[in-house]
Amino acid sequence: MAKHSDPDQTLMKMPSLRAVKSFVAAAKYQSFTRAAESLCVTQAAVSRQIRELEDYLGTVLFIRSGRTVTLSPEGSVFYDAAQLSFINISQAAERIRIKNPLRQPLVICCSPAFASLWIQPRLPAFLAANADIELTLIATQDFLSMEAGVQPDIFINKMSRVREGYSSTRLFHDVVYPVCTKKYLRNCHALATPEDLRDAILLDLSPYGRSQLAEHVDWKVWLSLHDVDVSSRANPVHQPFSSNDYNTVIQLAIADQGVALGWHHLVGDLVAKGTLVRPIPDEIVHKDRCHYLNVREDRSESDACRRFRDWIVGQL
Fold it and tell me: Taking every annotated instance into account, which residue ranges of this chain make up the domain HTH lysR-type (predicted)?
């Protein structure tokens, strides 16, 4: 006969971990809506969980003001403890997962543009050939400031020294040229030289968006490097769009809306498939501006890192 165990008072007094997870997410993003998006649940579910937690604790954890929320003094105390506990649990789980030979976690970090235009089309083939690797992709423009406890195994960016503890391998340098669709080219006036681009609709990155590619290159810079002054247009053309998101710029070009600057490593496949074309052969080549593969030195010899490193170098 099994021995009866008395109720564990510590566990009995614990609040719902699901409610605590919703609370931590809401505190982190200062928004119930963004917390819901990060947890892949509804905003109503997050609100309900937090109300239950507040009822359990007998205090208000958030000060609500319209759609924004800020932590109350009691909420700040609880958040510090809860966040630290979750980090400890996550790190312990990760150490156990790493020791399991059947499951090999791998965390990759790159820009949103590289994730969408380079990795995403090739990812199914990699996953099919490496079914035992559990890959997590972090797409960000801020490689220097990351959440506590997040330490990618591999960075792919334009920094040869992203942080301490990583070794760097040069991948490629920047090659930039105009791209558009065949339809736009047919409907546009003849394009044969950089000068002809002055009167085209030029889809551009905003200054903030250029940071994920090449901070100093936009249409004005690209054309000036080909001795073309955009301000000298005989008939100024309305520029309908600019964005900090390079993928959006390229999608507009694919939708026949104008000419975009194409970074070869991001649009080369689209050009090869005929989705986009190069209206003129001119380009700029930045041999002093390179992309690098930065690998954690303490993980560089792991099977997952080695396979991904060999795969991406082979692809490039």
Answer: 15-72
